[in-house]
Amino acid sequence: MDFEKLAQLDAADPLAHCRAQFVIPADTVYLDGNSLGLLSHATQARVAEVTAGQWGQDGIKSWNKHQWVQLPQRVGEKLAPLIGAAPGQVVCCDSISVNLFKALSAALSLVKQQDEGARPRHQVLSTRDNFPTDLYMVQGLSSIVGSERCELQLADESELLANPQAFITEQTAVVLITEVNFRTGRRLPVAKLIEHAHRVGARVIVDLAHSAGAMPVALDAWQADFAVGCTYKYLNGGPGAPAFIYVAKRHLPAISQPLAGWFGHANPFAFEADYEAAPGIEKMLSGTPAVLAMAAVDAALDSFTGVDLQQLRAKSVQLSELFLDLLESTGCANEFRCISPAQSHERGSQLSFAHDDAYAICQALIDAKIIADFRAPNYLRVGFTPLYTRFTDIGLAVERLAQIMADKSYLAPQFQQRHKVT
Ligand SMILES: Cc1ncc(COP(=O)(O)O)c(C=O)c1O
Ligand SMILES: Nc1c(O)cccc1C(=O)C[C@H](N)C(=O)O
């Protein structure tokens, strides 16, 4: 491994300075930011301040004094430029799953209004290989409103991309699409799918779980209708950090959502018996914000200040290409089947490899302080977070992977037992 050359790449990296903002686990190469991003020093300090300083010293006064009440909007506005959204369209709240439920209901009622009395369409089109929670939320909503109002229709991802018109039809009410496939890392052409959907009057919900903070996203330019995403992956908001939801401004006056909690009320502190939705994006809120967790997200987003997202994407591609090149040069690439697309523009910020012993290989890698992850049935995933992953890290990861494959140390009994949840 030519570590001198890798050090030169690190020295020339315009984002190299970002790494110092993070707490990097000792002697560890962390390639799992696609599942849980690392802690930043600023986040650590903010959580301490909000806990001891604000909650500890100011108690209940903090809702006003430290503007806890406005956190969902404030964090939403801070996040908006990272996903290509103009102000007034994003709030931070709940989980992706819960936000999907709200977005699905809102999108279906929007299409019903638009179809005015004609037999309302009810199909929600998604991909079979989507992250399961996305599909479960459609199934859950369907069990409440009935399949005549909401019915999940599944398409094979490759077939949908090859022939979108065959799947996105006049019967389609909503297209629910995740930009980057969590298993394969395949990046779907969202703008093109939105165009197809709009042509037949369908609305689109985009799941940005594996996009936000990893690459430029252009929700407004794409004319997306709704979007959801999490903050615990590439945005480094922390375990279980609250998610976000985007609603295009043009839809805000017409839409409503069923989880109509008091934080979405036009005047929450009037404590009125009747619900009146807030006029703006606040109507997507439900209950009290998780202040400590949201404060962590707020601080984590500061590490994107001054970061050019095109540069971020360029580094992500460079890191993934380097991984593939180095793996090839070690001679062990052919032991794996790379299930991620060959072309970098068709990938997110991860690579996935199929191998019968992927679970054990992943455990052996973790034991060697290379943090990757495993997804059933047999995929090894490595994620690249351009803010803190160095080119040198890729060299170390591939070197150790090659070693594990050469000495077959992954066959040791301690790596075989499947007892881990992630
Ligand atoms: C594409 C996608 N959607 C949704 C989720 C999860 O959503 P939630 O925040 O509700 O756990 C994940 C990963 O956890 C994901 O990869
Ligand atoms: N959200 C997660 C969790 O609460 C526990 C373990 C993993 C996760 C994940 O984020 C999984 C992730 N969406 C994935 O791509 O597999």
UniProtKB/TrEMBL annotation:
Pathway: Amino-acid degradation; L-kynurenine degradation; L-alanine and anthranilate from L-kynurenine: step 1/1; Cofactor biosynthesis; NAD(+) biosynthesis; quinolinate from L-kynurenine: step 2/3. Pfam families: KYNU_C. GO terms for cellular component: cytoplasm. GO terms for biological process: anthranilate metabolic process; L-kynurenine catabolic process; L-tryptophan catabolic process to kynurenine; NAD+ biosynthetic process; quinolinate biosynthetic process. SUPFAM superfamilies: PLP-dependent transferases. InterPro entries: Kynureninase (IPR010111), PyrdxlP-dep_Trfase (IPR015424), PyrdxlP-dep_Trfase_major (IPR015421), PyrdxlP-dep_Trfase_small (IPR015422). It catalyses: 3-hydroxy-L-kynurenine + H2O = 3-hydroxyanthranilate + L-alanine + H(+); L-kynurenine + H2O = anthranilate + L-alanine + H(+). Pyridoxal 5'-phosphate binds at residues 96-97, 131-134, 178, 207, 210, 232, 262, 288. Signal peptide: none annotated. Its EC number is 3.7.1.3. NCBIfam families: kynureninase (TIGR01814). Belongs to the kynureninase family. Catalyzes the cleavage of L-kynurenine (L-Kyn) and L-3-hydroxykynurenine (L-3OHKyn) into anthranilic acid (AA) and 3-hydroxyanthranilic acid (3-OHAA), respectively. This is Kynureninase. It comes from Pseudidiomarina insulisalsae. The lineage of its organism: Bacteria, Pseudomonadati, Pseudomonadota, Gammaproteobacteria, Alteromonadales.
